[in-house]
Design goal:
Elements: H1 2-9, H2 13-21, H3 25-32, H4 38-50, E1 54-59, H5 67-86, E2 93-97, H6 109-126, E3 131-133, H7 141-152, E4 159-163, H8 169-178, E5 182-186, H9 201-216, E6 221-225, H10 229-241, E7 250-254, H11 259-267, E8 272-278, H12 283-292, H13 294-307
Parallel strand pairs: 1-2, 1-8, 2-3, 3-4, 4-5, 5-6, 6-7, 7-8
Helix pairs in contact: 1-12, 5-6, 6-7, 8-9, 9-10, 12-13
């Protein structure tokens, strides 16, 4: 029951100010956010790679209100790519982007987001890596999928994310699996109405399994975005039944969550990619992490009380 309340708070400016000022916030944010600057996140990437892990990097920030902010977001990713190239980390690190950060919600936002993300995708391809378009709330998805399709004409490795709790996702999965897309499947972390999304966790889990089966039996590259031990085990079994080799799918988990499981899967020969966020505009991302798991919220509450 707490999850929807926290997700609603993620859009509250008043709550943003309270959480940002809370004495224990910095400690808890550091658990999920790898740093504020690109030079702080590069050592995290190097450490992950040394342990046999891959990464996908997300420059956090999605509440864009001006075109200049959208251009700054584009430039932040281009700066990241320069650092990865200098350190020869391009093949181990890809990028995840939220199109809202590239101006999708502004006037003419679809065209603006496409124009801003294209040079990022081009630069990523030039150093041997790629970009995945993150899924946001359901009102943005038609635009995201259209941009994904457009980018794949020149950069077929461009990935996208689908969310199991949305009713539309099984149809989206069939289309994407048929055309050979790289697809990350997650449960979903936005507050969505009952008209478009399952509200019950058990129903979402069932949908996740149905959709993952579609992806595993398709022509694309499935990326299993989950920390749920049961779904991880099911993913392995579905991959086996579909005759997939270990390099024909991967697992993805968040930085700061279940680190020992990251290493276990990598040791078994799986490609294990750590979703690693960094940047100063961390609030929305942080609140969704709290909403996903009550233990995260309890950890945050204890930190505030300890520091207060």
């Amino acid at each position: 029951m707490l999850g929807p309340v926290i997700l609603a708070a993620s859009r509250s400016d008043r709550m943003r100010r309270f959480v940002s000022a809370a004495p224990g916030t910095k400690q808890v944010v550091a658990r999920f956010i790898a740093g504020e600057r690109v030079d702080q996140v590069v050592p995290v990437v190097q450490d992950a790679v040394a342990k046999g892990l891959s990464v996908t990097l997300d420059v956090v920030g999605e509440d864009i209100t001006t075109r200049d902010q959208a251009f700054a977001a584009r430039d932040a990713y281009l700066e990241l790519i320069e650092h990865l190239e200098e350190l020869d980390l391009g093949t181990q690190a890809e990028m995840s982007v939220k199109l809202s950060m590239f101006g999708q919600a502004l006037d003419g936002g679809h065209e603006l987001a496409l124009a801003n993300v294209r040079p990022v995708v081009e630069a990523a391809a030039a150093i041997g890596t790629t970009v995945t378009l993150d899924a946001e709330d359901h009102t943005t998805l038609d635009s995201m999928f259209a941009i994904h399709e457009e980018l794949r004409k020149d950069f077929p490795a461009t990935g996208c994310v689908i969310q199991a709790y949305l009713f539309r996702t099984e149809a989206d999965a069939r289309r994407l699996a048929a055309n050979g897309s790289r697809v990350r499947l997650v449960k979903g972390a936005y507050k969505e109405p009952a008209e478009v999304a399952y509200q019950d966790k058990a129903e979402t889990d069932k949908a996740y399994v149905r959709i993952l089966r579609i992806l595993m039996e398709g022509e694309g590259y499935p990326m299993i975005g989950s920390h749920d031990p049961r779904l991880i085990s099911i993913g392995q079994e579905l991959a086996r039944r579909a005759g997939r080799k270990l390099d024909e799918y991967e697992f993805q988990m968040l930085y700061g969550i279940r680190g020992e499981e990251h290493l276990r899967l990598a040791a078994e020969g799986h490609r294990m990619r750590v979703y690693t966020a960094y940047g100063t505009d961390w609030y929305g991302y942080f609140m969704r992490r709290l909403a996903e798991k009550p233990a995260n919220l309890l950890f945050f509450a204890r930190s505030i009380l300890t520091k207060g």
